[in-house]
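Entry 14. Two folds queued back to back today. First construct below, sequence then structure tokens.
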Amino acid sequence: MQEQNSVKSRETLFDAEEMVLNMGPQHPSTHGVLRVLLKLDGETVTDLDCDIGYLHRGVEKIAEHDTYAMITPYWDRLDYVAAVSGDLCYVGGVEKLLQVEVPRRAQYLRVILTELQRIASHLLWLGTHAIDIGAVTVLLYCFREREEILKIFEDFIGARLTAHAFRIGGLWWDIYPEFEERVRDFLDILPDRIEEYEVLLNANRIWLSRTVGIGVLSSEEAINLSLTGPVLRGSGVRYDVRKAQPYSSYEEFEFEVPIGENGDTYDRYLVRMEEMKQSALIIEQALDGLPEGPVMAKVPKVIKPPAGEVYFPIEAPKGELGVYLVSDGSNKPYRMRIRPPAYINLQSLKRMAIGHLVADVVALIGTIDIVLGEVDR
């Protein structure tokens, strides 16, 4: 009798039309704190839902109880692999509230640091994306170059990961004497190193089989999902905040906005590879034209912006990062709202994954390039 029941249970299990599978949160490719609920027909994804909030810290609510200056370090910990970009977004929003003009030298230095951060962020993305799919060598190569950027940050800012680079009004201090030389040395080696990554991956048949035609998003779908950054540009939409709404003197630099043709995982890879080359071009121009002068504007010791509200966006490595600030005239914001690109881009995972295999979900999480500190906040 017991044996008959066991056989019947097995038959019921295998006769089931669909199966629900938890991928994460304790899963390497979901970055430790993302739970993806998969509904499967065999190994094919028929539905998907993301369960987030495991890393939620309530940054937006905390901001209502801290002064404007005290809030800045929280932005280092949103996208913690692109801390410098987060700083620029927040201080730019406060400066817009104050109507403060940041010195041009500080603007150029901000561009240099944030573009270095973009390269470092893309290197981390490429290394982890590749190892998720099975290419171990690329991770070691990418960390080799990323380490050089982190050393530059460490010597200038004092931190490697959550680098607190900017202050409201500019920079707290000017660059050290060897800064320019070290950045140029890095720019000299970068093209050859990017070529090494491309030699490893561009025509690799395993890489192509895991990325070409996987997670295709049309330009219309990407726009309707409010996607930004490389995910949007991979679908052929040439939108970049640095071009559309220039900030920090970006209008003074010549660079291209790369786009894809097919909107698949391989196109998004190509877009990010080209973005690293364009970032290097921007940094070189900023170093060549770096103005003399102060790096800090005159701002009051106690920052009390006039009552009003602003929205300030930047082009972060993962897309449009924006801050919405409401001031009531006090030294603390009445309201702070973050527009995180990783959180908004994550909603595309369902659209991209349905119809693909479970193994492809790993590649699709990687192609979005999420950081859960920014998703959960």
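Second construct, same run, same settings:
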Amino acid sequence: MSETIDTLDNKGIEKKESVGEFIRHTREELDKTTFPSSDAVKNTTIIVIVNVIFFALYLFLIDRAWVYIIDGLTWLVNKIVGI
């Protein structure tokens, strides 16, 4: 939090850091991160695949329904107009 306040107080003055400091800060941040277990990744992947299949099927059926409705309206208009 103090780093955020310091950068706001400097008002655009950039503090350059060396490559070594950058690498050290990067490693410190990577040590703070956590990565999901392989089981969590597998479960999430299965959920994503099931959702993709569900929404693909849903959108396909909605598209087919609209095609059916538009074809019916076109036929009706053609019958009314006499084409």
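Quick look at the second one. The helical segments are 2-10, 19-32, 38-81. The chain is about 80% helix and 0% strand.
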